[in-house]
Amino acid sequence: HIHNCTRGIWLDWQAQGTRVTQNLFYDNVIPKKYNENKESMGGCAEDLFIEVSHGPTLVDNNIFLSDRAVKIAAQGVALVHNIIAGGLVAVGKGTNNGAPTRPSPRYTPYHIPHRTEIAGFMTILHGDCKFYNNVFIQQKMRPALKEAMLENERTNNDWDDGNIKAGTFKYDKYPTFEKWVKQFDGYCGMGSVTTDRYYSELPVWAGGNVYFNGAKPMKQEKDAVVDKTNKVTICCEEKDGKITLKTNLYDVLPETACKLMHTDDIMMAFEPEEKYENPDGSPITFDTDFFGKKRSGAVLPGCFADKSEISKPLF
After folding, report:
1. Quick one: what percent of the chain has pLDDT higher than 70?
2. What is the CATH number of the domain that holds 147?
3. Which residue(s) pair with 108 in the sheet?
4. Cα-based distances in Å from 191 to 72, 103, 194, 209, 307
């Protein structure tokens, strides 16, 4: 239960093998009713920041309610069965050292799977992210945060785009795996003009996601469910020392069943060639929800196994 912080969790380089699961995040940007001006935007952060890591970093069964949900200045991230009511921030950004006139990519280490020995150092190509069975909800944009986002767009800020628009659309230009791998067909030489292919963005995968209030899927996502009719409200309420989720989400969530996900359904992280699995190397079946309840029958998107759980205190 992480709330009212400058930043919720920051996973910097060497976050390989990390799993963030069954957490509640909210008000980890700038608190509502705070002095929202241009100067205060410099301290504007998010629920979860993953920086210059090659993965695999697994983020599952969480509730992200801050305007800026997950900052992904990294690759090799899998988000599975989350409720995400904020933007994916800094996609394709934040991995250079900021030299004014020279290329300055950051080289960071990756490891032998499930060990601490370093296997190599490499830059970040971005992408290699996976989004399965999540619910994306666009919240009302706070004016100061919206202006900060637009300012970052105008200045092409290389560290942060300030994104508070929900959805996976920031990955629109990233290829599917099929398109990405096809560019290497019949190619076995070095030093030609076509070596750009080795420096292009890595592919991105998505499936089973649902989008509300104008949250947008990426163009490559073929089975996205986009609800253009219902208005979803969501927030936390504290009463008698208990935190509950106040939302109409489960009144309008479609009955479309998602796939029950397993480790083998998720492409391994590209650079370390490591799967999204337990620390001992055993596979994960994503059949346990936010409360630890087993999923059975029709699998719902989001972090709850069934609609009745929404009335339970989260903490």
Report:
1. 93
2. 2.160.20.10
3. 122
4. 32, 20, 8, 41, 57
DSSP 288: B
Question: Positive or negative, the Cα torsion across 251, 256, 257, 258?
Answer: negative
Distance (Å, whole) CA 252 – CA 68: 24
Q: How many domains does the chain have?
A: 1
DSSP 86-129: SEEE-TT-S-B---SSS--BPPEEEESTTSSSEEEEE----B--
Q: Look at residue 63 and give its three-state secondary structure.
A: strand
What's the CA gap between 19 and 277, in Å, rounded?
A: 9
Taking the model in full, what pTM does it have?
0.94
Domain containing 250 equals 2-311
Inter-CA distances, 7 with 32, 35, 37, 70, 161, Å: 15, 17, 18, 10, 16
Alpha-carbon gap, residue 223 to 231, rounded angstroms: 21
Segment 227-265, tens digit of pLDDT:
999 999 999 999 999 999 999 999 999 987 799 999 999
3-state secondary structure of 180: helix
β-bridge mates for residue 258, sequence order: 299
Tokens found for residue 194: 């076509």
